[in-house]
Amino acid sequence: MRLLLPLLVLPHMLAQQPSLGTSASVARGDKLFAQGCAVGYCHGAGGSAARSPRLRGRTFDRDYLLKVIRNGIPNTAMPAWGDRLTDTDIDDIADYIQSLATAPAAVMGNSAAESPSAVPAEKSAEAPEEHRQGRDLFFDAAKEARCAVCHRLDGFGASIGPDVTKVTAIAVSDAVQVLRYGRPRTVRTIILHDGDRFPGIVLDRTSAASRIFDLTSNPPVLRNLLASEIQSIQRQTNWRHGSAVRGYAPEELQAIWDYIRFVAGKK
Amino acid sequence: MFRLAALFAAAMLYGQDGATRENWPHYGGQTNAWRYSALEQVNASNVNRLVPVWSFQTGDADGGLQATPIVVDGVMYLSSSHNRIFAIDAATGRELWSYYFALPKGFTIFYGPWNRGVAVADGRVFFGTLDNHVVALDARTGRELWKVNVEDAAQCGCNITAAPLVVKGKVIVGVTGGDSAHRGYINAFDSKTGRRLWRFWTIPGPGEPGHDSWTGDSWKFGGGAVWMTGSYDANLNLTYWSVGNPAADFWGGNRKGNNLYTDSVVALDLDTGKLKWHFQQVPHDVWDWDTAYENVLLDLPVAGVPRKLLLNVNKGGYTFVVDRTNGAFVAAWPLVKNLNWITGVGPKGELLGRNEPVVGKSKIICPSIGGGRSWNQGAWSPRTGLFYSTGIEWCEDVVAVPETPKEGQVYFGGTFKLTHKPLKGEAGGHLGAYDPISGKRAWQYEYKYPLLASVLATAGDIVFTGDADGFFFALDARTGKKLWNYQTGSGHRGGSITYTVNGRQYIATPSGWGSAVAGLLPQIWPETEKLRGGSAVFVFALPELGK
């Protein structure tokens, strides 16, 4: 049902006269549109449809436009821009889209040619300067083993290991030691009847089957094992957290820890 | 006479090596991506008697139906949009099981909801997901066996839409994200456990050969997506993958250099993932010319000498043929007449007369971003010695725009709009039959819109494909003459296949209009906005005797 949402809404876009905005706001909206909305997989130059719906030559209810630009449409390619653009930006883009209502659908302007200079992307509030390094290291895509492969923080990463913001009992001076040599309590040794043996974190378990994160390789694998496949699950394990953070130097781990504490403090 | 016999023997040999028979085991037929079947029960003389025997509705028409079904031992495995997987009795159309992958709540889909297929081996079904997981199911029951989150989709702005390639217990698959600030890769997972066996970065990191073909930090966000399915040569133990465009697509000002291994075919050792050779078709691409499509493995004589070859059509509309043992350039030829981004290809495979987009200034580039051909695959028939491929005549106005990369966000570097008329003739599509080395065309079938479905060739000397209007049709493989068609009610974007169950030959085609490139068509042909979507498989056979 959710898939039909955009189609269901379109016929209901109230046919009220578009409020066309000032020429300055339309021009600014044009520029923002060319930068963020006209590109690649999206609405095309002048809203003429590329790989997303045509906006040119269509009448939209303004509240609907603002809502969709701000919140996106879940389960579609339309992203939420509310956290990347200011209210003024969104208003200006809506002004621009509404200015396209009377434009012929098939005759395209060349807005980009008229406004070639790039609008610098606004930085979203990720981390203040002093925690930027810690954040970059936590999520560093170039590292085979990085924190975010197992830990979710600030809206990114996988939830395999524990919520790192809840790890508070570690004294700051011990943090790096714990990250390097700690043995998380949730890790078990899983032994299968076929002889396979691996360090794992049990996600859930019924009498029929268990879902277990296999930590042998990176990224971990969520395996759905029948009870009949599992010989035993043992508390004893040789797995150490150090194997997951081997790519980080001690001072990098310290920066990561400081960033984690910063995020924990924001909550 | 001797020579004819030798040719026939060679054809038979190729048939045994590369043709499908009762099953359609891999995305491209066999692992050499021929999309050719040795079945001949249905042939040029009786194809006009084909009748529908069953159809199957997936129930999710969003984005159309883009997959190529897999058939193993009488069971068809199919994926639709939103990672719905179905196992179907291939003789009757009865559903055996279904599996709907659950996306995280409120998840934003990048690019689109589609999926291009599953892989089946070792009693398991494998596929990639919209949130960048690789999943294994039990082929008998559909029960989930393992899944691995390759990389957080929210961070990378990437996902998996291609069918994996599975050989020798390894599930090999790439990743989308070539129009985002992202660094591409190819992964191999153990088919039994899901453990990662190796990863090949499509952009070399610091200290690796080729890293100096990027400036500054551009390598971290340089694209290089691998968004279609690779091939495999068992004798050489090499797996061949083609790497997409560098990001940003239309602007290369901050990634000066050749930008390896974007727009390249890479040959990797199956067991280690180590690079054996590469051939870059488009150094420093600024047109979004993915070298992302199928790698067709052919054994043919070149100037009288038998060669092991690899044929690859790129989005720029050029076909490159290289020696697949070492990557040496053999030949290049254009698929389309509307092509102005280069003036030609030199004797070593080098591009001549580059015509690049300009910052802040509109420029006409042909073909358009939709490609001189889209990703829908061609077919090779060893019987006719012809490579069958669609092609598209269209152009675009491009403006390059400097852009600052932001991890996981769209990183396009320009805007484009399609032009109403191409530089030569009318905009439209065609299906041609070509000599794979010289590019000499034997015949061409023309159509008013781009043809966006893959091609199937058979030993019955027929080629099958479908069009945007909903017709699935058969052409004579030697002449291009239309022999049969059937209206399926929605346009074609997937891959048709053929197989047998209990000795009866079936021809199956997905039907369901949609996709990114289909979404471009209204810029030239406004009426195509009204083409109806769908998502069904139609299966045909000859009437059974006595029934």
Quick description:
The complex is a heterodimer of chains A (about 270) and B (about 550). Chain A contains 8 helices and 5 strands; from the N terminus they run αααααααβββββα. In chain A, helix 3 crosses helix 4.
Explain what you see.
The complex is a heterodimer of chains A (267) and B (547). Chain A has 267 residues and is α+β, with helices and mostly antiparallel strands. Chain A is built from 8 helices and 5 strands. In chain B, the strands form 10 sheets. A 5-stranded mixed sheet of chain B has the order 1-32-33-34-35, with no helix packed on it. In chain B, strands 2-38-37-36 form a 4-stranded antiparallel sheet, with no helix packed on it. A 4-stranded antiparallel sheet of chain B has the order 3-4-5-6, with no helix packed on it. Chain B is mainly beta and 547 residues long. Chains A and B meet through helix 2, helix 5 and strand 4 of A and strand 10, helix 2, strand 14 and strand 29 of B.
